[in-house]
Amino acid sequence: MDEDFCREQVQRIRALAERADPFTRRRLLALVGRYDAKPSGPSRPSRVAERPLPARTTPPASILSGSGEA
Question: Where are the domains of the chain?
């Protein structure tokens, strides 16, 4: 991403944060911090740390084959 794009995004995000509730404001300002932390040198793909998804478990068969009554 080039510097102009990042600068514009930061401006948009700050404008949104001004009107947001406190929880969303914190999240948006944290996003601004990520844009500010990007190196200003040549662009390189960033690897964003992702949280692993929880292991998917199948519900017990008794739930799936119930009598149909709620």
Answer: 1-38
